[in-house]
Amino acid sequence: MSFAAPPLSLYIHIPWCVKKCPYCDFNSHNAPASLPRTEYVAALLADLDQDLPLAQGRPLVSIFFGGGTPSLFVPDTIARILDGVASRLAFAPNIEITLETNPGTVEHGPFAGYRNAGVNRISFGVQSFDDEALQRIGRIHDAQQAERAVKSAQDAGIENLNLDLMYALPQQTLAGALTDVEKAIMLQTAHLSHYQLTLEPNTAFAANPPPLPDDDAAWDMQEACQARLAAAGLAQYEVSAYARPGRECAHNLNYWNFGDYLGIGAGAHGKATYSDGTIRRRWKVRAPRGYLEHAATPRRSGGDDAVAQEQLPFEFMLNALRLNAGFSFADFSARTGLATAAIDAKLQDALVRGWLERDGDRIRASEFGRRFLNDVIAAFLPERERLSHSQGGQRHA
Q1: What pLDDT, on the 0 to 100 scale, is given for residue 153?
Q2: Which of 10, 85, 196, 198 counts the highest number of beta carbons within 10 A?
Protein backbone atom coordinates (compact mmCIF):
# COMPACT_ATOMS: atom_id res chain seq x y z
CA MET A 1 0.00 0.00 0.00
CA SER A 2 1.57 3.32 -1.05
CA PHE A 3 1.26 6.45 1.03
CA ALA A 4 2.57 9.99 1.16
CA ALA A 5 5.32 10.95 3.56
CA PRO A 6 3.90 12.57 6.71
CA PRO A 7 4.69 16.06 8.07
CA LEU A 8 8.28 16.71 9.12
CA SER A 9 9.65 18.25 12.34
CA LEU A 10 13.19 18.89 13.59
CA TYR A 11 14.49 18.09 17.06
CA ILE A 12 17.75 19.77 18.16
CA HIS A 13 19.44 18.38 21.26
CA ILE A 14 21.63 20.55 23.49
CA PRO A 15 23.17 18.03 25.92
CA TRP A 16 24.51 20.23 28.74
CA CYS A 17 23.00 21.28 32.08
CA VAL A 18 24.31 23.33 34.99
CA LYS A 19 23.57 20.31 37.18
CA LYS A 20 22.16 16.87 36.42
CA CYS A 21 18.84 16.34 38.23
CA PRO A 22 18.69 13.09 40.25
CA TYR A 23 15.49 11.90 38.52
CA CYS A 24 16.65 12.65 34.95
CA ASP A 25 17.36 9.83 32.51
CA PHE A 26 17.75 12.08 29.45
CA ASN A 27 21.07 12.40 27.64
CA SER A 28 22.27 15.37 29.68
CA HIS A 29 25.72 16.14 31.03
CA ASN A 30 27.13 18.65 33.49
CA ALA A 31 28.33 21.66 31.52
CA PRO A 32 32.09 22.30 31.29
CA ALA A 33 33.47 25.64 32.43
CA SER A 34 33.51 26.77 28.81
CA LEU A 35 30.81 25.44 26.53
CA PRO A 36 31.97 24.62 22.96
CA ARG A 37 29.13 26.65 21.46
CA THR A 38 30.80 27.50 18.13
CA GLU A 39 31.97 23.94 17.60
CA TYR A 40 28.58 22.50 18.53
CA VAL A 41 26.69 24.78 16.13
CA ALA A 42 29.01 23.67 13.33
CA ALA A 43 28.48 20.03 14.34
CA LEU A 44 24.69 20.41 14.36
CA LEU A 45 24.63 21.88 10.87
CA ALA A 46 27.05 19.26 9.55
CA ASP A 47 24.81 16.59 11.08
CA LEU A 48 21.77 18.15 9.43
CA ASP A 49 23.56 18.18 6.07
CA GLN A 50 23.91 14.40 6.31
CA ASP A 51 20.19 14.00 7.09
CA LEU A 52 18.83 16.36 4.40
CA PRO A 53 17.88 13.58 1.95
CA LEU A 54 15.40 12.31 4.56
CA ALA A 55 13.43 15.56 4.29
CA GLN A 56 12.34 14.67 0.74
CA GLY A 57 11.61 18.31 0.02
CA ARG A 58 9.13 18.67 2.89
CA PRO A 59 8.99 21.92 4.89
CA LEU A 60 9.43 21.82 8.65
CA VAL A 61 6.21 22.19 10.61
CA SER A 62 8.02 22.58 13.95
CA ILE A 63 11.45 22.84 15.55
CA PHE A 64 12.14 21.90 19.16
CA PHE A 65 15.32 22.70 21.11
CA GLY A 66 15.50 20.15 23.92
CA GLY A 67 18.11 19.01 26.38
CA GLY A 68 19.86 19.26 28.64
CA THR A 69 19.25 22.96 28.99
CA PRO A 70 19.11 24.76 25.63
CA SER A 71 18.90 28.15 27.35
CA LEU A 72 22.60 27.72 28.19
CA PHE A 73 23.02 28.84 24.58
CA VAL A 74 22.54 32.61 24.27
CA PRO A 75 20.11 34.07 21.72
CA ASP A 76 22.83 34.79 19.15
CA THR A 77 23.85 31.13 19.18
CA ILE A 78 20.24 29.97 18.78
CA ALA A 79 19.88 32.46 15.92
CA ARG A 80 22.93 30.99 14.16
CA ILE A 81 21.43 27.53 14.41
CA LEU A 82 18.03 28.62 13.10
CA ASP A 83 19.59 30.64 10.28
CA GLY A 84 21.60 27.57 9.30
CA VAL A 85 18.49 25.38 9.35
CA ALA A 86 16.50 27.93 7.32
CA SER A 87 19.21 27.99 4.65
CA ARG A 88 18.82 24.22 4.22
CA LEU A 89 15.11 23.53 4.75
CA ALA A 90 11.90 25.41 4.06
CA PHE A 91 9.76 26.49 7.02
CA ALA A 92 6.02 25.91 6.88
CA PRO A 93 3.82 28.97 7.44
CA ASN A 94 3.25 29.51 11.16
CA ILE A 95 6.05 27.11 12.08
CA GLU A 96 6.26 26.47 15.83
CA ILE A 97 9.78 26.91 17.25
CA THR A 98 10.15 25.86 20.90
CA LEU A 99 13.07 26.41 23.26
CA GLU A 100 13.24 24.52 26.55
CA THR A 101 14.53 26.65 29.39
CA ASN A 102 15.45 26.20 33.03
CA PRO A 103 14.24 29.16 35.12
CA GLY A 104 17.62 29.10 36.86
CA THR A 105 19.60 29.67 33.65
CA VAL A 106 17.88 32.68 32.07
CA GLU A 107 18.04 36.35 32.90
CA HIS A 108 15.40 38.96 32.13
CA GLY A 109 17.00 40.18 28.90
CA PRO A 110 17.42 37.11 26.67
CA PHE A 111 13.74 36.40 26.02
CA ALA A 112 13.46 39.28 23.56
CA GLY A 113 16.65 37.98 21.98
CA TYR A 114 15.23 34.48 21.65
CA ARG A 115 12.06 35.92 20.11
CA ASN A 116 14.13 37.92 17.61
CA ALA A 117 16.09 34.77 16.79
CA GLY A 118 12.83 33.11 15.72
CA VAL A 119 11.73 31.30 18.87
CA ASN A 120 7.97 31.67 19.32
CA ARG A 121 7.33 29.15 22.08
CA ILE A 122 9.11 28.69 25.43
CA SER A 123 8.88 25.57 27.59
CA PHE A 124 9.85 26.16 31.22
CA GLY A 125 11.09 23.28 33.36
CA VAL A 126 9.40 24.57 36.51
CA GLN A 127 8.47 21.17 38.07
CA SER A 128 7.09 22.79 41.24
CA PHE A 129 6.42 26.17 42.87
CA ASP A 130 7.33 24.80 46.31
CA ASP A 131 10.91 25.67 47.27
CA GLU A 132 11.29 22.66 49.56
CA ALA A 133 9.99 20.33 46.86
CA LEU A 134 12.41 21.85 44.35
CA GLN A 135 15.29 21.24 46.72
CA ARG A 136 14.23 17.62 47.25
CA ILE A 137 14.35 16.93 43.51
CA GLY A 138 17.65 18.74 42.98
CA ARG A 139 16.50 21.74 40.94
CA ILE A 140 18.76 24.80 40.75
CA HIS A 141 15.96 27.41 40.73
CA ASP A 142 13.39 28.52 43.28
CA ALA A 143 9.73 29.44 42.92
CA GLN A 144 10.37 33.19 42.66
CA GLN A 145 12.85 32.67 39.83
CA ALA A 146 10.29 30.55 37.99
CA GLU A 147 7.56 33.17 38.31
CA ARG A 148 9.91 35.97 37.24
CA ALA A 149 11.10 34.00 34.22
CA VAL A 150 7.56 33.30 33.03
CA LYS A 151 6.52 36.93 33.41
CA SER A 152 9.69 38.10 31.65
CA ALA A 153 8.94 35.90 28.65
CA GLN A 154 5.40 37.26 28.53
CA ASP A 155 6.72 40.85 28.77
CA ALA A 156 9.03 40.06 25.83
CA GLY A 157 6.02 39.20 23.71
CA ILE A 158 6.21 35.41 23.85
CA GLU A 159 2.69 34.34 24.77
CA ASN A 160 2.88 30.68 23.78
CA LEU A 161 4.34 29.24 26.96
CA ASN A 162 4.46 25.76 28.42
CA LEU A 163 5.19 24.94 32.03
CA ASP A 164 6.44 21.50 33.01
CA LEU A 165 5.02 20.46 36.38
CA MET A 166 5.54 17.15 38.15
CA TYR A 167 3.35 15.57 40.80
CA ALA A 168 3.84 12.73 43.29
CA LEU A 169 7.06 14.41 44.37
CA PRO A 170 8.91 13.28 47.50
CA GLN A 171 6.70 13.97 50.56
CA GLN A 172 4.14 15.82 48.39
CA THR A 173 0.49 15.94 49.48
CA LEU A 174 -2.63 16.35 47.38
CA ALA A 175 -2.91 19.92 48.62
CA GLY A 176 0.67 20.59 47.54
CA ALA A 177 0.07 19.22 44.04
CA LEU A 178 -3.05 21.39 43.67
CA THR A 179 -1.18 24.47 44.89
CA ASP A 180 1.38 23.99 42.10
CA VAL A 181 -1.41 23.82 39.54
CA GLU A 182 -3.11 26.92 40.98
CA LYS A 183 0.10 28.93 40.60
CA ALA A 184 0.50 27.78 37.01
CA ILE A 185 -3.08 28.86 36.28
CA MET A 186 -2.44 32.27 37.87
CA LEU A 187 0.49 32.77 35.48
CA GLN A 188 -1.97 32.36 32.58
CA THR A 189 0.12 29.76 30.83
CA ALA A 190 -1.14 28.57 27.45
CA HIS A 191 0.03 24.99 27.91
CA LEU A 192 0.90 22.71 30.80
CA SER A 193 2.77 19.42 30.84
CA HIS A 194 1.74 17.66 34.03
CA TYR A 195 3.33 14.32 34.71
CA GLN A 196 4.15 11.97 37.54
CA LEU A 197 7.67 11.70 38.93
CA THR A 198 8.84 8.15 38.26
CA LEU A 199 12.06 6.43 39.23
CA GLU A 200 13.90 5.69 36.00
CA PRO A 201 16.76 3.17 35.77
CA ASN A 202 20.32 4.49 35.93
CA THR A 203 19.38 7.67 37.77
CA ALA A 204 20.48 8.87 41.19
CA PHE A 205 16.91 8.50 42.49
CA ALA A 206 16.75 4.90 41.27
CA ALA A 207 19.92 4.10 43.18
CA ASN A 208 18.75 5.92 46.31
CA PRO A 209 14.94 6.25 46.14
CA PRO A 210 13.28 9.13 47.99
CA PRO A 211 9.97 8.61 49.83
CA LEU A 212 7.26 9.00 47.18
CA PRO A 213 3.45 9.02 47.49
CA ASP A 214 1.94 5.60 46.79
CA ASP A 215 0.05 4.77 43.59
CA ASP A 216 -3.37 5.60 45.02
CA ALA A 217 -2.19 8.98 46.29
CA ALA A 218 -0.57 9.73 42.93
CA TRP A 219 -3.79 8.83 41.12
CA ASP A 220 -5.79 11.12 43.41
CA MET A 221 -3.37 13.94 42.58
CA GLN A 222 -3.71 13.33 38.86
CA GLU A 223 -7.52 13.32 38.95
CA ALA A 224 -7.82 16.38 41.19
CA CYS A 225 -5.31 18.41 39.16
CA GLN A 226 -6.91 17.37 35.89
CA ALA A 227 -10.30 18.58 37.12
CA ARG A 228 -8.87 21.90 38.29
CA LEU A 229 -7.09 22.48 34.99
CA ALA A 230 -10.25 21.71 33.04
CA ALA A 231 -12.18 24.21 35.14
CA ALA A 232 -9.53 26.83 34.30
CA GLY A 233 -9.89 26.24 30.54
CA LEU A 234 -6.85 23.99 30.06
CA ALA A 235 -8.22 20.91 28.33
CA GLN A 236 -6.38 17.62 28.48
CA TYR A 237 -5.60 16.49 24.93
CA GLU A 238 -2.88 13.92 25.70
CA VAL A 239 -1.95 11.79 28.69
CA SER A 240 0.18 14.51 30.31
CA ALA A 241 -0.59 17.60 28.17
CA TYR A 242 -3.17 20.35 28.75
CA ALA A 243 -3.75 23.41 26.60
CA ARG A 244 -5.96 26.39 25.99
CA PRO A 245 -7.81 26.23 22.64
CA GLY A 246 -5.37 26.43 19.73
CA ARG A 247 -2.28 26.14 21.95
CA GLU A 248 -1.68 22.40 21.67
CA CYS A 249 2.00 21.66 21.04
CA ALA A 250 2.43 21.20 17.28
CA HIS A 251 5.78 19.46 17.69
CA ASN A 252 4.53 16.84 20.11
CA LEU A 253 1.33 16.37 18.11
CA ASN A 254 3.49 15.41 15.13
CA TYR A 255 5.18 12.75 17.28
CA TRP A 256 1.87 11.42 18.59
CA ASN A 257 0.31 11.39 15.12
CA PHE A 258 3.23 9.25 13.93
CA GLY A 259 4.79 12.01 11.87
CA ASP A 260 8.43 12.16 10.79
CA TYR A 261 11.20 14.09 12.51
CA LEU A 262 14.88 14.67 12.01
CA GLY A 263 17.00 14.55 15.16
CA ILE A 264 20.33 16.35 15.31
CA GLY A 265 22.65 16.70 18.28
CA ALA A 266 24.26 14.28 20.74
CA GLY A 267 21.92 11.35 21.33
CA ALA A 268 19.07 12.87 19.26
CA HIS A 269 16.53 10.44 17.79
CA GLY A 270 14.70 10.70 14.48
CA LYS A 271 12.06 8.85 12.46
CA ALA A 272 11.90 8.86 8.69
CA THR A 273 9.44 7.46 6.16
CA TYR A 274 11.20 6.53 2.92
CA SER A 275 9.71 6.76 -0.58
CA ASP A 276 9.16 2.98 -0.66
CA GLY A 277 7.12 3.16 2.57
CA THR A 278 9.89 1.83 4.80
CA ILE A 279 10.01 3.51 8.22
CA ARG A 280 13.35 3.79 9.98
CA ARG A 281 14.42 5.12 13.35
CA ARG A 282 17.93 6.50 13.77
CA TRP A 283 19.85 8.08 16.59
CA LYS A 284 23.14 9.86 17.06
CA VAL A 285 26.06 9.04 19.35
CA ARG A 286 25.26 10.06 22.92
CA ALA A 287 28.58 11.39 24.19
CA PRO A 288 29.03 15.10 23.36
CA ARG A 289 32.76 14.64 22.70
CA GLY A 290 32.18 11.75 20.30
CA TYR A 291 29.41 13.67 18.59
CA LEU A 292 31.60 16.73 18.11
CA GLU A 293 34.34 14.59 16.61
CA HIS A 294 32.12 12.73 14.14
CA ALA A 295 29.13 14.96 13.37
CA ALA A 296 30.18 15.41 9.72
CA THR A 297 30.78 11.68 9.16
CA PRO A 298 28.72 8.48 9.18
CA ARG A 299 30.20 7.73 12.61
CA ARG A 300 27.85 10.30 14.13
CA SER A 301 25.16 7.61 13.93
CA GLY A 302 24.51 5.60 17.06
CA GLY A 303 22.09 3.35 15.19
CA ASP A 304 19.70 3.14 12.26
CA ASP A 305 16.99 0.47 12.35
CA ALA A 306 14.05 -0.29 10.08
CA VAL A 307 10.75 -0.73 11.89
CA ALA A 308 9.54 -4.22 11.01
CA GLN A 309 6.11 -4.30 9.40
CA GLU A 310 4.76 -6.47 12.21
CA GLN A 311 5.90 -3.84 14.72
CA LEU A 312 4.12 -0.93 13.02
CA PRO A 313 0.72 -1.38 14.74
CA PHE A 314 2.41 -1.24 18.16
CA GLU A 315 4.61 1.71 17.17
CA PHE A 316 1.57 3.61 15.90
CA MET A 317 -0.55 2.86 18.99
CA LEU A 318 2.32 3.76 21.30
CA ASN A 319 1.85 7.32 20.08
CA ALA A 320 -1.74 7.68 18.87
CA LEU A 321 -3.45 6.19 21.92
CA ARG A 322 -1.84 8.84 24.13
CA LEU A 323 -4.12 11.38 22.47
CA ASN A 324 -7.56 11.90 23.98
CA ALA A 325 -8.92 12.19 20.44
CA GLY A 326 -7.30 8.90 19.43
CA PHE A 327 -6.97 8.16 15.71
CA SER A 328 -8.98 7.39 12.61
CA PHE A 329 -8.64 4.31 10.43
CA ALA A 330 -7.47 6.64 7.66
CA ASP A 331 -4.72 7.94 9.98
CA PHE A 332 -3.53 4.41 10.67
CA SER A 333 -3.32 3.43 7.02
CA ALA A 334 -1.78 6.75 5.92
CA ARG A 335 1.00 6.65 8.52
CA THR A 336 1.82 2.92 8.52
CA GLY A 337 0.99 1.87 4.97
CA LEU A 338 -1.01 -1.05 6.40
CA ALA A 339 -4.63 -1.96 5.80
CA THR A 340 -6.83 -1.86 8.89
CA ALA A 341 -7.12 -5.64 8.64
CA ALA A 342 -3.70 -5.71 10.30
CA ILE A 343 -5.27 -4.55 13.58
CA ASP A 344 -8.86 -5.77 13.31
CA ALA A 345 -8.60 -8.73 15.68
CA LYS A 346 -6.66 -6.90 18.39
CA LEU A 347 -8.88 -3.85 18.02
CA GLN A 348 -12.05 -5.86 18.49
CA ASP A 349 -10.61 -7.58 21.56
CA ALA A 350 -9.69 -4.22 23.13
CA LEU A 351 -13.16 -2.84 22.34
CA VAL A 352 -14.84 -5.85 23.96
CA ARG A 353 -12.64 -5.48 27.05
CA GLY A 354 -13.68 -1.85 27.36
CA TRP A 355 -10.12 -0.58 26.90
CA LEU A 356 -11.01 1.31 23.73
CA GLU A 357 -14.12 3.03 22.45
CA ARG A 358 -15.25 3.83 18.93
CA ASP A 359 -16.98 6.94 17.64
CA GLY A 360 -17.65 6.56 13.93
CA ASP A 361 -14.28 6.22 12.24
CA ARG A 362 -12.31 7.19 15.34
CA ILE A 363 -10.82 4.95 18.02
CA ARG A 364 -9.61 6.23 21.38
CA ALA A 365 -8.77 4.89 24.81
CA SER A 366 -11.75 4.74 27.15
CA GLU A 367 -11.58 6.28 30.61
CA PHE A 368 -10.89 2.78 31.95
CA GLY A 369 -8.29 2.14 29.25
CA ARG A 370 -6.42 5.35 30.05
CA ARG A 371 -5.85 4.08 33.57
CA PHE A 372 -4.04 1.04 32.18
CA LEU A 373 -2.72 2.51 28.96
CA ASN A 374 0.59 0.68 28.93
CA ASP A 375 -1.27 -2.63 28.86
CA VAL A 376 -3.71 -1.44 26.20
CA ILE A 377 -0.82 -0.42 23.94
CA ALA A 378 1.05 -3.67 24.66
CA ALA A 379 -1.94 -5.59 23.26
CA PHE A 380 -0.79 -4.46 19.80
CA LEU A 381 2.68 -6.01 20.14
CA PRO A 382 3.50 -8.92 17.84
CA GLU A 383 2.25 -12.09 19.49
CA ARG A 384 5.63 -13.45 20.57
CA GLU A 385 6.53 -10.17 22.28
CA ARG A 386 3.07 -9.77 23.76
CA LEU A 387 3.38 -13.13 25.52
CA SER A 388 6.57 -12.02 27.24
CA HIS A 389 5.11 -8.65 28.29
CA SER A 390 4.12 -8.26 31.92
CA GLN A 391 0.35 -8.38 32.31
CA GLY A 392 0.25 -6.44 35.60
CA GLY A 393 -1.89 -3.33 35.16
CA GLN A 394 -0.10 -0.08 35.93
CA ARG A 395 -1.69 3.32 35.95
CA HIS A 396 -0.26 5.49 33.26
CA ALA A 397 0.96 8.96 34.24
Answers
A1: 95
A2: 10
